Amino acid sequence: MTPHHAELTAVAAAQPDLARALDEGWDTPLGEASAALWADPPADAGFEPTLRRALVAELGQRTDEAERIVAGVERAGAVLTPHHVCPTAGPTFGAIDWIATRAAPGPVLVLAWSGVPMSNSAASGALCFHRAEHGQLLVAGPELQRQRTAAKDRARDGVTEGRVVLLPPALRDALVFRCPVPDRTREVLAAASPALRALVGAPRPTRPTASWAVRSCEAVQRALVGHRTCGTST
Prior knowledge:
- This protein is mainly alpha-helical.
- It is built from eleven helices and five strands.
- The strands form two sheets. It has a three-stranded parallel sheet with strand order 1-2-5, with helices on both faces. A two-stranded antiparallel ribbon has the order 3-4.
- The chain starts with 8 loop residues before the first helix and ends with a strand.
C-alpha cells in the first residue's frame, strides 16, 4: 500500500481485500469506477415471479410506473446490499448507494431488511446525523431538552453518533417488521424543525414504521445522489 494511502490502514486491519481493491482504484475517477460496476449486466436478470409480483404491487402503491421501473431494474441489474430499514442511511451504505448510482444505466433498486430489532446497529428507531446539532433538527421546547439529555447519557456509554430517538424504551427490542408507528414517534416529529419536517415528513395513519422509515431514508438518499430513487423493504 502506497504511503499516500495511509488512510486505508484502518480498513486494511479489518478488510484487507477491500483495502487492496480501494488502493488499486484510488486514482480512478468516480464515474469510471461506477460505470465498471454496471459493465457486465447479468445474462438472466429477471426476478423470480413471486418476488416480481410483490415488487410491482409494492411500488404500485406509490407510482403508476411500477411495471416500467421493475422491468428497467431487470434489464440493468439491482443493488442488493445488507441495508436495514431505517429512516437515515449510515455513511457506509449511503456511500454504496451514491457510488452505484453515478453511472447506473437505469432505475436502481435497493432492498432492505426489516426482520431485525429496532435496536440494531443501523439504529432503525432513530434519526442519525453527524454534523448537525439537535437544535437544528428540533424546535425549542421540552422535546429538544429530552433529546439533548439522552445524548449526554449515551455519550457517557461511548455512543458519540448524533441521534434523535423516536421510540419509547419498551420498543427497543421490537422487530422493525410490521411494528406500528408508536405515539412517541409522532410526538418527536411534532417537534421537528421546518427543515427536518420538509425532509422526512410525518408518518401516515395506520401505516407501519417500516413504511415511513423507507420513505424518509429515500428522501435522504435523493438529496444525496441527486435524483429520484425507489426503495422497498423485505
